[in-house]
Structures are given as structure tokens and as C-alpha cells.
Amino acid sequence: GENVEQHPSTLSVQEGDSAVIKCTYSDSASNYFPWYKQELGKGPQLIIDIRSNVGEKKDQRIAVTLNKTAKHFSLHITETQPEDSAVYFCAASIPTTGQNFVFGPGTRLSVLP
Amino acid sequence: GAGVSQSPSNKVTEKGKDVELRCDPISGHTALYWYRQSLGQGLEFLIYFQGNSAPDKSGLPSDRFSAERTGGSVSTLTIQRTQQEDSAVYLCASSFDRNNEQFFGPGTRLTVL
Predict the structure, then answer these.
(1) What three-state secondary structure class fits A62?
(2) ω into B8 cis (within 30 of 0)
(3) What is the pLDDT of residue B112?
(4) C-alpha to C-alpha distance for B90 and A33, rounded to whole angstroms
(5) 8 Å CB contact between B33 and A101
(6) How far is CA B94 from the centre of its chain?
(7) To the nearest 10°, the Cα dihedral for B105, B9, B7, B31?
(8) Which of A32, A36, A99 sits opposite B45 (nearest CB)?
(9) Which residues in chain A have their CB less than 8 angstroms from residue B43's CB?
(10) I need a surface site. Which of A36, B22, B50, B83 has the fewest CB within 10 A?
């Protein structure tokens, strides 16, 4: 089955710097790759997603890149702000029956003022 | 419109008691997922419902855990004879179909004394 790895597990950056979180997946059939942000005491919320027919997607300070050949995708946050501090989860989705979403273990991002 | 709601938000119970956790998904969403999140950990898949298909129960940790989804809408996760290791946040998510964004509820924090 699908396996998603995520690195680093924790990341601290200075406010204004960029942050990059990387994920790898194992199943080449995966075709949907969302990123979720979870703030303390809340459920995860989608911040950006990408499908396998696209290599890059941007939304203001957030971008996601996908390399299907290498089976990895990355989240890039530029000009980080304290409110970006949270846990970020990547996921890979396979268009098949049964449970099709596999989440990475998460990255705790701290943006230091 | 309304998002995914879960009740109760917090539940404290004694070891050995049964508990029921409720999830109201977004109207029209055919897919519904239950996850468990221990403190500071990632998302552990429990069970997945897709339309009228048989649920994917492959993530349920023991036969003390069960879930149902009535009328393709509301879902209830039941934990029988609770143990201290069941203490966690239980998250519910729904999506329009299997390969799209999951919308998460706020979770139910279960504490087993």
C-alpha cells in the first residue's frame, strides 16, 4: 500500500524567512496531493493541493511542487509570519476502492519573531 | 454553509465504560473518514465510508471499536469497554467524493480515567 514520509519533523525559522517541507510517496498511482495545516486544538484545514497533471501551484505565499518521477512533493512558505506556526501534514490519495488517503506524520513549524 | 461538526467536544469517561462519538458531515458529501490523533502525533486512520459501499474498517485497532453511518449522513463511532490508551482526539472528515479535499471537524477529545 501507499506510504508517505515527511521531513523534517520539526522546523524553526525566523520571521520573514522561507520554510520548506518535503514529502515522498511510494505508490505511483497516487494522483492527488493535499497539504493541511493544523493549529492547536483544531482540526486540520486544507491550505493548498495539487493533482498529478500539474508540476507546481502557487497561492500567495504558499506553493507546492510535485515531481512525479521522483515521487516527491514539497510545500514552500515564503515570508513566514508567526501565524504560520502550526503542524503541517501532507497526504497522497490513490483513486482506488477503500481507504485512499495516506497522511504523512506531520511537521511542526515554529516561526520565531 | 455549515462545516463538519462533532459532538461532544470533550468526553471524560471511566475505564470500562462505552462511549459514542458523533459526526455530522457536510451535506452532500459521500465520503466520511474517522481518524485518531494522540497528543503530538499524526493522523491514525480508523474507518472510511463511501456512499452505500461497505465501509473500509482496516484501521480499527480492535473489536472494541465500531462505527456506523446512517442514511449516508451522520456517523457514530462507538468504543466499548474503554481503556486508558484510547485517550486521544477523534477527528471526523468528509469529502464530496473519494479523491477530493477532506473537510475536518474540530474533533472530540476523549479522556479515559
Answers:
(1) strand
(2) yes
(3) 98
(4) 23
(5) yes
(6) 10
(7) 20
(8) A99
(9) 44, 89, 103, 106
(10) B83
Which amino acid, B40? G
Widest Cα–Cα separation across chain B: 38
| Closest residue by Cα to residue B8 from B85, B94, B109 | B109
- pLDDT-derived band at A101 (thresholds 50, 70, 90) equals confident
- Give residues with Cβ within 8 angstroms of A112, minimum separation 6: A12, A13, A14, A15
How close B104 gets to chain A, by Cα (Å)? 6
Using CA atoms, how far residue B27 sits from A54, A71, B1, B2, in Å, is 30, 34, 9, 9
A105 contact residues in B (CB cutoff 8 A): 41-42
State pLDDT tens for residues B8-67: 999 999 999 999 999 999 999 999 999 999 988 889 999 999 988 889 999 999 999 999
Q: Which three cell numbers stand for residue A29?
A: 498511482
Q: In terms of C-beta density within 10 A (0-12 exposed, 13-18 middle, 19 or more buried), how is residue B42 classed? A: middle
Which residue's entry shows cell 513566514?
A: A80
